[in-house]
Amino acid sequence: MSSRTRQWLSLVGIIWLQSINGTNSNFPAYSSQLKQILSISQVQLNNLAFASDAGKLFGCFAGIAAIYLPVWLVLIIGSTLGLIGYGVQYLFVTNQISSLICWINTVCYVVAIRNFPSHRQVVVGLTTSYVGLSAKLYTDIVDAAFSSSPIERAKAYLHLNSILPVIVCVIAAPLAREVDVGRPRNMKVGFISMFVITIATGVYAVISSLESISSKSSSLSKIIGMGVFLVAPLLIPIIEKSYGIMYDFTIEENEGVESMEDGVDIKEREEAEEVRVVDIIKEEIGAKVMLTRLDFWLYFFVYFFGATLGLVFLNNLGQIAESRGYSGTSYLVSLSSSFGFFGRLMPSLMDYFSSRTKDMISKPASIVVLMAPTAGAFFLLVNSSDLSLHISSAIIGVCSGAITSIAVSTTTELFGTKNFSVNHNVVVANIPIGSFLFGYLAACLYRKEGNGHGKCMGMECYKYTFIIWGSLCFLGNFLALVLYTRTRKFCREKV
Fold it and tell me: What is the pLDDT of residues 228-252, one digit of tens each?
């Protein structure tokens, strides 16, 4: 099997891994039932949500493991941790820590960066988008295969969270491995084909999540459809192996001197592209030095008040919907998941097509643009209509997903690729911190407005939480503007 075919197969493996990697994103779909089973308060439920995110505090160990261990072994370790964590929750319904996400994420990022050095930003963004489908995928499986009883559904989510990642890791491990790719080649046809498949997958996910359409189609048909779209990327390595059309070959032996000259020109363009990728790295530094940089702390708190705040909102989506008297929590989870998919995909599309021009937008500038609508969405939630809940969930899903995707490229641009696996895990350590602090704030305000029995109904339950979250997001927007101002000269030089 050629290295080109194995290169594309590694991309398929990463896609499959990322599609089941968002195990914490389906938490709002069963959080209310879990609260009922355990007879716990909102504060205790927040502690449970924090426990599922706390593994990211130890994500640096996943980064170190990715440096010294084979990637397949890192996958097995991560999936085993998830099996233990969620398995204990399933068997005993208790709050054990699960950290499989950062381990699988680390493997996916490392393989993408090393196997696609000339297109790493595009590949990382494209594959990360599939994390946005995780909540919908798990919800569709539960709808199709398990009882409609709320208690049984909660147990089903925990069961899937523990078992499915292990199964997919075993299947994908032989595919998601490092490949000696040689010199960079033109991969235009392959990437365009992958974008078409990915966009079609997202469109199907959004359409099948719409309440009017979802009620008319069976749960089994939805999961079969998702399965077909997830298998579809295999067409690219199959065609590459069978016909060799995924690359534009630079030199044909039978085309004479003119073809040779064209080949040299193409090679020069490819080499120039590789140089451009190298030039966008500001500096190669490790975690210790990174922690001394002002840019790091600006970047850390921008992520903290942006993507992390969006994640906390999604963790609380089940309780938010319940307090407003809205019964379609699964629909909301699928909706935010599907829009989050497109949010994660957008930066990858922009990177790919703008890299061929001089019109590349800097990553900090992109974050500035995305933070403003996120803040606006939090204030829109103060409105009591279901439409505002739908719109805000979609906006927060899109924007927080896009920021998460952009953050991977931002880490490599600001601090280099050599120590990326450790550096980025240091950055995302803010997720469990924010999960605890922002979630605890929301839980305390919820309890204050409640009826004294651990339950709160009405708009007052989260009104002040939304105002505080929106204000913090505007603060993050300002910090993103400061970061953009500080890195603007560097961003201009790389273009």
Answer: 999 999 988 888 777 654 444 443 4
